[in-house]
Amino acid sequence: MKIAHIVSTFPPYHGGMGNVVFEETQALHARGHDVRVYTPQYNADTNGFDEEYVTRIAPAFSYGNAAYIPQLKQELDEMDIVHLHYPFFGTAHLVGKWKQKHPEKKLVITYHMNNRAQGIKGLFFRYYAHAYLPKILRSANLLIASSLDYIVTSDASQIYREDPKKWSGLPFGVDTNRFDIREKPAYLFEQYDLDIKKPTIILVASMDEAHHFKGVDILLKALLILKKNNIDVQTICVGDGVLKERYMLTAQGYGLKHIQFVGSVSYEELPSYYNMADICILPSTSTAEAFGMVLLEAMASGVSVIASDLPGVRSVATDGGLVFPVGDYKKLAKSIVGLLSHISSEQNIILRHIVEETYSWTTHAEKLESIYKSL
């Protein structure tokens, strides 16, 4: 099949949606399909991710991760299936209009997450969800969500109630070759002046304005409680963005000495950072977090997880650890203490087995291929 995947971000940009499309399309290629990815060309630095099947189009207009790329329309006519990854402000509406003019074409939409923001941007997101989102989703032949638990409480819930049979739940996967149980990397502990024998927490999150909901402040408050109770842990925070300096100043103000903000790490190095950890934490604060790919990456590495009790996120987190009430940093602190007492090599192997059985990209691609063939 000739399949077009349309997505607002793509590696080397660090974001869950682009990473999903990267892995998804790689797996579809391996199954013999002619797949193309269309994504905006925001800058010239693509860091080796310009595969032959990736077309980066200079947008006529862009703002943040929103982009209008009218050149896309002429690329879609030759495709058997068009697969849009939402949200994609500017281009999602364009694809919906293209579908109206080509009703014979098959359109699949994966609804990744709600958009949430503060101030004027938040008002725009709410208006868009009310005025445009239903039209875009109704234009699809089939709709996909990583978790139907998430959809029933999302901005797409009205569309789900109208026609539940139009939706398919398809959990995302993880590269079980890239992420695996390995020895703790002594060189990284030395690099960051950390103790390899001490319990280690990892947080992996973009720290730009678009990902303000990642809840880094919640983790810092929980770590302050642990410090006051003389519970000795150390923390690695992986990720970069304009908010990182604020988080660093907060940690400094709390007197958190055993925490390192390491910024962005390379695609090749990221698995080694998970291998440093005993617990991975995802303390997101809103339904803009819909699944939590970092949880799967951690579990594949044999690392237990703690995450906010959010729809979609909890379906993964309960497979690999604990959930805590959204924003409740006191409960998060208690969860960290409780989970540390249950860490073992046997538990690590169990986590790995869960991922291999349920969350491999091979399994995901097989199910996605079946969805395409059902249209």
Could you describe the 3D structure shown?
By secondary structure, the protein is of the alpha/beta class. Helix content is about 40%, strand content about 20%. The protein is built from 16 helices and 15 strands. A 7-stranded parallel beta sheet has the order 3-2-1-6-7-8-9, with helices on both faces. The protein is globular. The model has no long low-confidence stretch (mean pLDDT about 90).
Quick tags:
single chain; about 375 residues; alpha/beta; Rossmann fold; 2 domains; 7-stranded parallel sheet; 6-stranded parallel sheet; 16 helices; about 40% helix; about 20% strand
Strand order of the largest sheet: 3-2-1-6-7-8-9
What is the beta-strand fraction?
15-25%
For this structure, the CATH topology of the largest domain is: Rossmann fold
CATH superfamily of the largest domain: Glycogen Phosphorylase B
| Poorly predicted runs | none
Q: What does the average pLDDT come to?
A: 92
Number of helices: 16
Q: What structural class should be given to the helix and strand makeup? A: alpha/beta
> Which class of the largest domain in CATH terms?
Alpha Beta
Number of strands: 15
Main β-sheet description: 7 strands, parallel
